[in-house]
Specification:
By secondary structure, this protein is mainly alpha-helical. The chain is 46% helix and 10% strand. It has helices spanning 2-5, 19-29, 38-41, 47-56; strands at residues 11-13, 33-35. The chain has a two-stranded parallel sheet with strand order 1-2. α2 (19-29) links the parallel β1 and β2. The longest helix has 11 residues, at 19-29. The protein is globular. It starts with a helix and ends in a 7-residue tail after the last helix.
C-alpha cells in the first residue's frame, strides 16, 4: 500500500532477527532497501553471509 503512494526510495527498518526476515521484507513489500542495527552489532547476523543469502533468494544485492 505504501509503495503505491511513495515517490522516494522506500526502506524497511526494524524487527529483523533472522536472515529470512530480510528476504521476506524484500519479497513481500517491494522495498528498495532494508536496514538493521542490533543484529549486526550483536553479531547475530554476519553482513557478508546475509548478502550471499539474499542473492540466493534472488534479491538484488551489492557484493
Amino acid at each position: 500500500m505504501v509503495r503505491s503512494v511513495c515517490n522516494v526510495p522506500l526502506i524497511a527498518s526494524g524487527g529483523a532477527g533472522a536472515m529470512e526476515h530480510f528476504a521476506e521484507a524484500y519479497k513481500k513489500t517491494n522495498v528498495d532497501g532494508a536496514l538493521a542495527a542490533s543484529v549486526f552489532h550483536k553479531q547475530v547476523i554476519n553482513i557478508g553471509e546475509l548478502k550471499q543469502y539474499l542473492k540466493q533468494q534472488d534479491v538484488e544485492v551489492r557484493l
